[in-house]
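Weekly sync, protein design subgroup
Attendees: M.S., D.O., the rotation student, P.L. (late)

Item 1: inverse folding check
M.S. brought a backbone from last month's batch and wanted to see whether the design step gives back something sensible before we order anything. D.O. pointed out we never logged the input encoding, so this time it goes straight into the notes. C-alpha cells as presented (242 positions):
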C-alpha cells in the first residue's frame, strides 16, 4: 500500500528545491500541453499541482472560467495563489474525495502524479465519470524502465506499468498512449540520491540508511553503471477523451 503520510512528508520537504531539480517533470509538463488539440476549457481540475510547475503553463496556454488545483500538501496553497488568486486550491488526498464530488470538468490534468495512486483502475473510471461530454483526461506517469538503476541496486520500486499495459487498460476508451525515455548522468551515486531527495520522489520507504547501506548502494550502482552513474526516467503520456 502507498504510504500517503510519507508521500506528504517527503514532498513537503522539497517544496523549495523541486522546481530547480525537476528537469524531466518540466519536459513532461510541456509535452502534456502539446497533446491538447484545443485551448478552451471552461472547468479545469489539476491533480497533484505541487509547486505549480504545470499550473504556470496552464495559465499561459489555456483559456478557462474556473481552475481547481489539488494537492495533498497544504503548503502548496501559497505557491498556487501567487500564480493566480483566481485559482481554487483544495488540499486533499484526491482518491478519497473525488468519488463524493458532484463537480464535472472539461479538462482533468495531472503531471507525474498517478504513480502514487493506490487503485489506478478505479481512479481512472471515477475521473472519467467526472468529465463533461467531450471532456479530456490528460496525465503523465512513469513506465517499467523508470529508475531502472535504483530498482536493480535496491531491489525495490513503485509498481510501475508498461505502456502496453496502459494501452490494454484503456482499450475501451477513446485514448492514446505515448512513452519516452530520458537518461540523466551524474558524477556519483550520492548525487543521484540527492537528486531524488530534492524532488521528493523518495517516498517508497522511511528506513534510515547506515554507512554500510550507503557503501553497498555506491558499490552496486558502480557495478551496474560501468561508466558514469545514470538515472533513467520513463515518462508515459495518456489522453482519454469522453
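Designed sequence read out in the meeting:
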Amino acid at each position: 500500500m502507498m504510504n500517503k503520510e510519507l508521500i506528504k512528508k517527503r514532498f513537503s520537504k522539497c517544496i523549495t528545491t523541486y522546481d530547480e531539480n525537476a528537469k524531466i517533470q518540466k519536459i513532461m509538463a510541456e509535452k502534456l500541453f502539446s497533446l491538447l488539440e484545443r485551448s478552451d476549457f471552461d472547468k479545469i481540475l489539476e491533480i497533484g499541482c505541487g509547486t505549480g510547475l504545470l499550473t504556470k503553463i496552464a495559465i499561459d496556454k489555456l483559456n478557462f472560467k474556473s481552475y481547481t488545483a489539488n494537492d495533498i500538501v497544504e503548503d502548496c496553497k501559497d505557491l498556487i495563489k501567487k500564480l493566480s488568486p483566481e485559482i481554487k486550491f483544495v488540499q486533499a488526498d484526491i482518491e478519497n474525495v473525488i468519488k463524493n464530488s458532484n463537480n464535472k470538468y472539461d479538462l482533468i490534468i495531472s503531471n507525474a502524479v498517478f504513480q502514487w495512486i493506490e487503485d489506478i483502475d478505479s481512479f481512472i473510471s471515477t475521473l472519467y465519470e467526472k468529465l463533461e461530454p467531450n471532456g479530456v483526461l490528460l496525465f503523465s506517469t512513469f513506465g517499467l524502465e523508470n529508475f531502472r538503476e535504483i530498482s536493480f541496486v535496491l531491489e525495490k520500486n513503485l509498481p510501475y506499468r508498461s505502456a502496453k499495459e496502459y494501452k490494454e487498460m484503456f482499450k475501451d476508451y477513446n485514448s492514446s498512449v505515448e512513452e519516452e525515455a530520458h537518461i540523466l548522468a551524474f558524477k556519483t551515486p550520492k548525487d543521484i540520491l540527492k537528486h531524488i531527495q530534492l524532488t521528493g520522489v523518495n517516498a517508497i520507504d522511511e528506513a534510515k540508511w547506515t554507512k554500510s547501506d550507503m557503501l553497498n548502494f555506491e558499490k552496486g550502482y558502480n557495478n551496474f553503471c560501468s561508466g558514469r552513474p545514470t538515472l533513467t526516467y520513463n515518462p508515459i503520456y495518456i489522453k482519454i477523451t469522453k
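Discussion: The CA atoms of residues 165 and 213 lie 34 Å apart. Strands lie at 43-47, 66-71, 88-91, 105-110, 131-142, 174-179, 182-185, 230-233, 235-241.
Action: P.L. to compare against the previous round before Friday.
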